[in-house]
Please model this.
Amino acid sequence: MDWQPIILTFRLALVTTIILFFVSLPLAYWLAFTRSKTKPILEALITMPLVLPPTVIGFYLLVAFSPAYQFGGWLESIGLRFAFTFPGLVVASIIYSLPFMVQPIQSGLSNLPPSLREASYILGKTKISTLTHVLLPNIKPSLLTGIVLAFAHTIGEFGVVLMIGGNIPGKTKVASIAIYDEVESMNYAMANNYSLVLFSVTFVILILVYLANGGYFNQISK
Amino acid sequence: MISLKLDKKLDSSEGEFLLSIDIEIPKYSFTILCGDSGAGKTSILRMLSGLMTPDTGRITYDDTVWYDSRQKINLSPKDRGLGFVFQEQALFPNMTVRQNLAYALAKGQHSKEIDLLITEFQLDGLQDRKPATLSGGQKQKVSLARSIINRPKLLLLDEPLSALDQKRRMRLQDFILKAHRDYDLTTIMVSHDAAEINKMAQAVLSLENGKVSRITRPGEMKKVSEMTSGTITKIDESAEELILKISLKKKSGNAFQEEYATGEMIWVSKKM
Model:
């Protein structure tokens, strides 16, 4: 069995999740506490990947990244090529999984009692210090949910990666595409191998999250 | 002197109303704000602390302007140097009692302050516990300690004792009074409780229809105590505390009959 697509899948999921976490944090913070009238627009934009067919996002990203058009041309001129490359997959995955990271963090933050933030400000602390010492440590389950959902969702990508990355072995051929490839060439045993690995790994990850958020680990450590 | 001259439109269950106050509070005084719920008591504390912005007006502490709508000055809560005790305590759930106090230390303050307050507030046995495992009274004690550890000039308390039973209430009243004296605080507290007002306040501001309807000074507060009569039922003396168990009776006709409250008054004295 060729492990490369599996390794590539998890590398993509890991890189995407790490970058996505730091992108989503300020977005979720702003959405949780703003009173701005533009909030619904940003919320709608972030949620779009949940409802749009992945091919639509893939198509627009492909057009945007294409050196034949202005933006892609400009990217190329500063040495960035996103179409059919791994960095391109990462950018597409970040956009595609954005709601899975932003929404849990946003709801975690907005469900905290406002007095926690206020008490910290009155004690003379800055917004950054309040975020890192008070807010984030108290929404650990939401952070974990966001991180795991984004990770698992990236593993499960198909349409977007196919549009943006194509099927280049070792570069953009992730597990979901490898499965499709094997099925197309009637190689069901190999497709089953890939599928089984993805099925088991994602199942274990999700089970661990539900156990952690249900307080199971706290109970057994007592 | 703290001077407040504020207007703020507020929503209540009976619709919108204008909170309009113009008061001066002397430094080092203990003032109690009372009035019906929804009268704007909490809003006054929030505007003083910078958590809520008035529509128009001016707040000054001595010569420092905290808020001035005309000059567009609005100091953020962190720059006003005050302490705030929330009704719901607002202890940080992720930190132990000790960490809650440590987080509140000002830059450059020595961690000895934490030990000092832990001893003073009798929190020794609780310092490594998380807030979720504490009782209401213990939480409020930690919250009070946390609010004064960085030596604020002004202490604001928003109905800190309303969820406590009579015994814990009286104990905490003594802690608040002691903190008020020992830390040279100017204290403003929201309270509904007549006995509490009688015991603690040097001045009482009553809010009605968005305005201060009455300012009472201690000498004028006899009415509350004329309605009740108390007897000391037991005296417990320990090394550091003198506990007077008292029973209060309410006046019914000419005689004091109906039992009004029983409780303890506790003096915590440092042994010389």
The longest helix of chain A spans residues 4-33. Residues 4-173 of chain A form a domain with the MetI-like fold fold (CATH 1.10.3720.10).
